[in-house]
Amino acid sequence: MNLTLLLSFAGLCLLLAITPGPDSFLVLRYSIGGVRPGIAAAIGSSVGGLVWAVVVAAGLAALLEQSASAYRTIKLIGGVYLLYLGVRALLAHRKKAKESAPVVPVAASIRSAALAGMLSTMFNPKVGLFYLAVVPQFLTEVTFGSTMTLGAIECVVAGAFLIVLAFAASRAVEILRRPKVTQRLDRISAGVLAALGIGTVASAV
After folding, report:
1. Structural domains in the chain (count)
2. Average per-residue pLDDT in the chain?
3. Tell me, what DSSP letter sits at residue 138?
4. What is the percent of the chain with per-residue pLDDT over 70, rounded to a whole number?
5. Of 9, 132, 141, 193, which has the most beta carbons under 10 Å away?
6. Cα angle vertex 157, ends 197, 184, to 5°?
7. Cα Rg for the chain, rounded, in angstroms?
8. What is the pLDDT of residues 23-56, one digit of tens each?
């Protein structure tokens, strides 16, 4: 692999990273409670992508392409998990709305945010299929090392973008620290996660 090829792949990864998806909305969701949970979710998502890189590099992702039932199973698990996160967030929002105290975003733990980001990406088979369909186009020689090199580039690019997104989102919440604004951000991000989960489950059934 030459430098031009690597830069081209990094550019493609950046274009894909800025496209809104479950990972972006998950980072936004956790960033409402503070920049650290948002960054943790971003790093967790990157780790999940790296897991897929290992899987694809080992050739196991071919099973997902050849087995429709395996693909649907993983997709269904991922959709249910996203739906769980969205519903849990919506219930927490309703509970806070009923309280008389001012609405303040509740910061999630670093560990739970990172785990949510990692599991969300790990149970997204589209990530694996991206590696399976796109990565080979940038490989001059298909080896475990070269595949992992591109996987590492994708994870770094996506993780860097998501970390910037976490900083921007948490900063925006600090600037617009009005109860109505935080309520809407909380409700919208939770609703989007739930909608993504429902859509993923529906498409897998």
Report:
1. 1
2. 77
3. G
4. 69
5. 193
6. 40
7. 18
8. 888 898 888 778 899 999 999 999 999 998 888 8
Give the span between the Cα atoms of 94 and 160, in whole angstroms: 33
- pLDDT, greater one: 54 or 194: 54
Cα 52 to Cα 125: distance, rounded to the nearest angstrom? 9
Cβ atoms 59, 197 nearer than 8 A: no
Q: Which residues form the domain of 54?
A: 23-204
CB under 8 Å to 30, separation ≥6 — which residues?
37, 38, 40, 41, 108, 113, 116, 117, 166
Q: pTM for the whole thing?
A: 0.69
Is 30 part of a structural domain of the chain? yes
Half-sphere exposure of 139 (CA within 13 A, CB side): 18
Inside any domain, residue 167: yes
Per-residue burial over 103-138, b = 16 or more CB atoms within 10 Å of its CB, e = otherwise: bebeebebeebbbbbbbbbbbbbebbbbbbeebeeb
Q: How far apart are CA 108 and CA 29, in angstroms?
A: 10
Neighbours of 89 (CB within 10 A): 22
Query: Is residue 3, in this structure, part of any structural domain at all?
Result: no
58-102 confidence digits (pLDDT tens): 776 666 666 667 667 766 776 777 677 777 777 766 666 555 444
